[in-house]
Amino acid sequence: MKFDGGRLGGSISLFQSRKPVAGVDSAGVFGVKDHQRNRGLELSVYGEATPRLKVLGGLSLLKSDVASKDAIGAPHSQANLGLEWSLAQLQGLSLDARVIHTSSQFADAANNQKVPSWSRLDLGARYAVPMGNDTLTMRARVNNVTNRNYWASAGGYPGAGYLTVGAPRTFVVSAALDF
Question: pLDDT-based confidence at 39, cuts 50/70/90?
């Protein structure tokens, strides 16, 4: 279900899906061994909270299981919130912040090894400069401001899984010319 009120909008989704889980059986034959069931709820909000403040956020709640165990790399919740604030004092300048949270997740099929939950803060700025009929947009961003060490995700074949390391504090600068 989706709502669009012009300046603000949002959506809510309920879902269920099923996918095969492949592997090698005791005879060494590769094939479908089981199925993973995913059931969840997703909420999102977007738009202009005020004429100078934009918002984009979401929440996902997930129950994902294989053979009555939580599926590998399937956090029960994920949330994000992004805000962009256009400064009235300096035309063309906006600041933004984003917070991301992922709950813990299992890293093995037996649900014995758990990857802890993590949160991350990103901050940025954008400055758009008119250049005649064109616009030069300069951006600067710091991802993972607190330089938190975290495992971004877990996954893989049971018994041979992997962990993905979250990126350290990262500085990104860019410029784009619209012409």
Answer: very high
Q: Which CATH number goes with the domain that contains 9? A: 2.40.170.20
Q: Which of 40, 45, 88 is nearest to 63 (CA)?
A: 40
- List 16's β-bridge partners, or say none: 39
**pLDDT band at residue 159, thresholds of 50, 70 and 90?**
low
Burial of residue 152 (number of CB atoms within 10 Å: 0-12, 13-18, 19+): middle
Q: What is the pTM of this model?
A: 0.88
Q: Which domain holds residue 98?
A: 2-178
Q: Please return the burial class of 155, using the count of CB atoms within 10 Å of its CB with bins 0-12, 13-18 and 19+.
A: middle
Q: Which of 64, 61, 76, 15 is nearest to 35 (CA)?
A: 64
* 81 membership: H or E segment, kind and range: strand 77-86
If you count DSSP H runs as helices and E runs as strands, how many of each does the chain have, helices first? 0, 14
Question: What is the per-residue pLDDT across 71-125, written as a single tens digit (0 to 9) for each?
Answer: 999 999 999 999 999 998 899 999 999 999 999 999 988 899 999 999 999 999 9
Number of domains within the chain: 1
